[in-house]
Specification:
Blueprint lengths: L2 H4 L9 H29 L27 H15 L2 H14 L4 H19 L1 H6 L8 H11 L1
Length: about 150
């Protein structure tokens, strides 16, 4: 008897081929399906905040206030109103002018932001002191906001 006759071969696994193909197929298809289902879920949600015609609703028990719009002009207005309270209306108006110069798309919102600053300045500083901060930002919108809040 020779040495090679005593050598035994390892038995081949008969199911290795199909199982590996199924595993590879799942590895490719499953992530694609997850991405597609996530994309479909996101597109199905009514992001307008109007729950009457919403297809899907998110459940969040402790969120009683709907999300506010976070458009760039809203973010800027909120930041400037905070700055008006923390510093003074003059600083807020200067920053409004800089932002409008830096981002010309905000120019169409400049009047409404300046008026909001004028109204807030009257509430925080009183009419005469608020008027002292007036400057030609967005024409005379700040002064208009001061005057409108003074009279009404």
């Amino acid at each position: 008897m020779t040495h090679s006759a005593n050598h035994t071969q390892k038995p081949r696994r008969a199911h290795r081929g199909p199982a590996r193909r199924i595993g590879r197929t799942l590895a490719l298809v499953l992530p694609v399906m997850l991405v597609l289902s996530g994309t479909l879920a996101v597109t199905s949600v009514n992001w307008s905040g109007n729950s009457s015609d919403s297809m899907l609703t998110a459940s969040a028990g402790d969120l009683s206030v709907p999300a506010k719009s976070r458009a760039p002009q809203d973010v800027l207005r909120d930041r400037l109103l905070l700055e008006l309270q923390e510093k003074n209306p003059g600083v807020a108006l200067s920053h409004l002018q800089k932002e409008v110069d830096r981002h010309p798309s905000l120019a169409k919102h400049c009047v409404s932001i300046a008026r909001a600053l004028g109204r807030a300045a009257v509430r925080a500083y009183g009419p005469s002191r608020a008027q002292s901060y007036a400057r030609p930002v967005c024409d005379t919108s700040f002064a208009t906001g001061v005057a409108a809040h003074q009279n009404g």
